[in-house]
């Protein structure tokens, strides 16, 4: 523990551009990774352009909020510190600190970029400059490449592959291989966390599948850490002189790297598992609440029907349609009508019961509750309608209906209202 504390103190005190007290050691360059710095600058520019276009469309606050921009800023700063800053050079001189650098890239920076909705911002930024066929092809390819199973195999496979001693040594010797190693770690992790942190939608993985997704990756990622920590001999090419400067033998440096991979790395997965469990429990409670509200709505309908017996049957039918729509979706039809007006759906569609909703760009939505298909491709179910409302471009790339940043809660309420139109 004393050696670990001394190591952490020495790394923390290594100021940018300075060298640990050793006149015989080559100073770290001012910018050890200019390519990484350039990539981070491009990411910042594309993200900023995307936010600008989102704001121009009046969708700021729905598609991306100030919180997402904050996540992106933190992710960029951490990524700079990890792979592009002068201080990052010191992280690559010991096997253990190099391991910490990889974990920070995969388990901290990547999920922060996902939480910042970087992909959505990039689509908004780049879509006006790409021809529609090219954009449509890119979205179709991404739908295949970004399948959960493919992303899981990529993430865990690359993690295991790059920790083979021969490949790790290749990355140390060859700067291009080193850049490839970092890029593959980050991209694999970005895809992995995109699945884990995806909003709950009909076509996303369920809570149980996500738990299995994370837990199995944690198990496979922890095995190399345990092997490295418990090995009785050095398995990797380790800079013995550099380790000796910090009072470590190569074996101790390797054991420390294994512990970093095993314990802090495992802790990140444990936090993800606990967060998924919490979300699962909250979703179960919301469903129970919906069923309760559905039962209440049905009771109100029965009582109203009894009290209105003998009167015009139009009102009881409306109560019935409202109760049935609320029960089927778990949403609030009245709120749904308000959301439709606020989002501006009436600019393109004619929607009965919504003031000013007389657009002629899209099809009229009267009697949508009776239709068999949505957009000609999806069965008309509450789950499919909510998924379509949240992300129509993902379901039918290139169609004329834009993503309006509809949240899962909003989509439930809007679907509830639309299902009253029969």
Write a brief structural summary.
The chain has 422 residues and is an all-alpha fold.
Task: Walk me through what this model shows.
With 422 residues, the chain is an all-alpha fold. 68% of the residues lie in helices and 1% in strands. It contains 18 helices and 2 strands. Strands 1-2 form a two-stranded antiparallel sheet. Strand 1 and strand 2 form a beta hairpin. The longest helix has 58 residues, at 250-307. It is elongated and about 80 Å long. Mean pLDDT is 79; it is low at 1-30.
Tell me the layout of helices and strands:
Layout: H1 2-13, H2 34-56, H3 66-84, H4 88-91, H5 95-115, H6 118-126, H7 132-145, H8 148-162, H9 165-173, H10 175-196, H11 207-230, H12 240-245, H13 250-307, H14 314-329, H15 333-343, E1 373-374, E2 378-379, H16 382-390, H17 392-395, H18 408-418
Antiparallel strand pairs: 1-2
Helix pairs in contact: 2-3, 2-6, 3-5, 5-10, 5-13, 8-10, 8-11, 9-10, 11-13, 13-14, 14-18, 15-18, 16-18
């Amino acid at each position: 523990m004393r050696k670990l504390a001394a190591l952490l103190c020495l790394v923390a005190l290594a100021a940018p551009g300075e060298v640990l007290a050793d006149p015989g050691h080559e100073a770290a360059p001012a910018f050890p990774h200019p390519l990484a710095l350039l990539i981070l600058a491009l990411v910042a520019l594309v993200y900023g352009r995307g936010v600008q276009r989102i704001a121009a469309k009046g969708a700021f606050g729905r598609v991306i909020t100030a919180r997402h921009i904050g996540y992106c800023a933190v992710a960029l700063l951490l990524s700079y510190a990890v792979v592009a800053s002068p201080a990052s050079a010191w992280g690559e001189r010991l096997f253990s600190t190099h391991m910490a650098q990889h974990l920070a890239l995969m388990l901290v920076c990547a999920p922060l970029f996902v939480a910042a909705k970087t992909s959505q911002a990039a689509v908004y930024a780049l879509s006006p400059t790409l021809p529609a066929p090219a954009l449509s092809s890119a979205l179709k390819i991404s739908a295949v490449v970004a399948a959960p199973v493919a992303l899981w195999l990529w993430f865990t496979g690359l993690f295991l592959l790059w920790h083979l001693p021969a490949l790790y040594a290749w990355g140390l010797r060859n700067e291009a291989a080193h850049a490839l190693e970092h890029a593959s770690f980050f991209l694999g992790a970005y895809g992995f966390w995109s699945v884990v942190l995806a909003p709950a939608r009909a076509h996303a993985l369920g809570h149980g599948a996500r738990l299995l997704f994370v837990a199995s990756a944690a198990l496979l990622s922890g095995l190399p850490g345990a092997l490295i920590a418990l090995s009785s001999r050095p398995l990797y090419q380790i800079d013995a002189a550099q380790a000796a400067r910090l009072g470590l033998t190569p074996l101790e440096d390797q054991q420390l790297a294994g512990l970093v991979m095993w314990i802090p790395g495992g802790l990140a997965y444990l936090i993800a598992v606990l967060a998924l469990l919490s979300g699962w429990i909250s979703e179960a409670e919301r469903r129970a609440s919906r069923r309760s509200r559905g039962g209440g709505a049905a009771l109100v309908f029965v009582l109203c029907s009894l009290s209105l017996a003998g009167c015009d049957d139009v009102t009881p039918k409306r109560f019935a349609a409202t109760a049935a729509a609320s029960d089927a979706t778990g949403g609030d039809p009245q709120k749904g009508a308000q959301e439709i007006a606020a989002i501006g759906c009436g600019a393109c569609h004619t929607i009965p019961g919504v003031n000013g909703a007389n657009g002629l760009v899209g099809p009229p939505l009267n009697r949508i509750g009776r239709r068999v298909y949505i957009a000609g491709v999806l069965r008309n179910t509450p789950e499919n309608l909510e998924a379509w409302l949240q992300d129509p471009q993902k379901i039918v790339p290139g169609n004329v209906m834009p993503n309006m940043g509809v949240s899962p809660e909003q989509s439930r309420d809007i679907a509830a209202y639309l299902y009253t139109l029969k």
